[in-house]
Amino acid sequence: MIExxxxxxxxxxxxxxxxxxxxxxxxxxxxxxxxxxxxxMVQSPIPLWPGDQFFVNLERTLFGAGLSGTxxxxxxxxxxxxxxMALMISIGKIAISLISAxxxxxxxxxxxxxxxxxxxxxxxxxxxxRILPTFEVVANLGxxxxxxxxSIPLIASATATFMxxxxxxxxxxxxxxxxRIDGAGPMRFFWDILLPLSRTNIAALFVIMFIFGWNQYxxxxxxxxxxxxxxxxxxxxxxxxxxxxxPQWNIIMMTALLAMVPPxxxxxxxxxxxxxxxxxxxx
Amino acid sequence: xIKRVHFPASPLPYLLVAPQILITLVFFIWPASQAxxxxxxxxxxxxxxxxFVWFENFQLLFEDDHYIDxxxxxxxxxxxxxxxxxxxxxxxxxxxxxxxxxxTFYRTLLIWPYAIAPVLAGALWVFMFxxxxxxxxxxxxxxxxxxxHYLNGSQAMALVIMAAAWKQVAYNFxxxxxxxxxIPKSxxxxxAIDGAGPIKRFSTxxxxxxxxxxxFLLVINVVYAFFETFGIIHAVTQGGPANSTTxxxxxxxxxxxxxxxxxxxxxxxxxxxxxxxxxxxxxxRYVERKVEY
Lengths: 283, 293
What we know:
The complex is a heterodimer of chains A (283) and B (293).
Chain A: H1 6-33, H2 54-63, H3 75-106, H4 112-121, H5 131-140, H6 147-151, H7 158-169, H8 173-181, H9 186-197, H10 199-214, H11 218-223, H12 232-243, H13 249-269, H14 271-281
Helix pairs in contact in A: 1-13, 2-13, 3-7, 3-10, 10-14, 12-13
Chain B: H1 12-38, E1 41-43, E2 50-52, H2 56-63, H3 65-98, H4 103-111, H5 118-128, H6 135-142, H7 153-181, H8 185-193, H9 198-209, H10 211-228, H11 230-236, H12 248-258, H13 262-291
Antiparallel strand pairs in B: 1-2
């Protein structure tokens, strides 16, 4: 604070609270919609204050048939699928980028720069722009409707490799020298020195990649045709389509709420790591 | 680039890079080269054979009014999303930067929309603006505005812009706040002693000093609007009504998977790849300036 002007300070807080209100409004309306029964949710104007049907809707959404008149997988199964996909993508990305960054920074070998540029190029090819041929590859490999097909094409990540490369470059050379004098081989050095030193970076990256994996939409939509492989995020679209015939907004909004709780929880619960991960992966 | 001290050459580094290189080759480089190859082919009407036609697919695209329209629409859409979410985030960050007590509290409450998937953001906004039930059309009626984004193209566009911008505010806010907090306090204090009020300080000192962040965020937001908003469009409007919200990424998907025009879709993919590469290069060239003050 530079100067003490109570009116300006008051105004600042009012504006911030107003901003939060505007940002939170869609979520509030979603939450309210998930606490009423479906009869109330088709009467205009829709309520703006929570009702008492939250747990009824929660149980119906999680374990019941979900939306009546659709052939969806139960919501708990979709949540599990999403969790499996998000974990496979985030852990996979971290694992393969850790070892490739290790190789690129600590070894001198022919084609090192070729490999580096091959990884760099993936930064420029988001899945959306190469969607059709990538789908063909996955179909030819027989990976449709499997967790492997869902996660592996999204696992290669230039951002993660760059971040670990950056981290390794800041680690003093003396550590490697003394490790070698003590007779440690490359893998021993990796496990006992590099991994413990990059622990916070790994955690920060995990937060970002978990959110990235959980929120995938277009790719799961194409790769899964079997309803038992549906992820929670892609099920929302099918529910919106069904809503045109029989609106059950309480169930749809409860599903939306369930789909956003895990990543939002990760962001709020691990805010420090999240901010670190976000600012560091953006170079 | 490489450590001064390193391990001697052995087969080990090849084993270590193998998983990443394998995935990159199979799922990135091979599909991208396939897209490039297919963009030079036209399949006959029955899908039995294809003919190598050089740049005819690209020529057809740029003669196609739908594609040109989609291009202009995408430009407008991304400009609107970037402007809306960046200016909102800038104002909020400007206020949050002044707060001494409770700054973390405000930050927590402002950053979590980042975690919401685009398709979910779309679902939330489509519910709020549902013509028969939504809360906003209900209030808009009082002003004599008849909201129906299923029929009105500009209303549909406005809705997807709002949903896309809403989701991105959190990200912009975080970077703006970090940039503002890294400005040395002594600069601000000196200006205050010279008699500059909060608004004057913001417009003549803070805003110019964070311009590298503004530039960086502009690139990020345009990339976001171009590629990551697919879920919003798909959930809210499906490109309609009458193609009024068909942006480029949606068109690639639609022509390839629904229209089954492989050559045309591949040519569109190639154009998008060129756009991404251009934006990545811009981002990298200016990234060094980002940290200088």
